[in-house]
Amino acid sequence: MLITVAASVSTKFVEDRLSKPAPVVRAMPNTPCVLNAGMTALCGGRNATPDHLKTAEAIFKCVGKRYLWMNP
Question: Scanning 23, 29, 41, 48, which has the fewest C-beta atoms within 10 Å of its C-beta?
Answer without folding.
Answer: 41
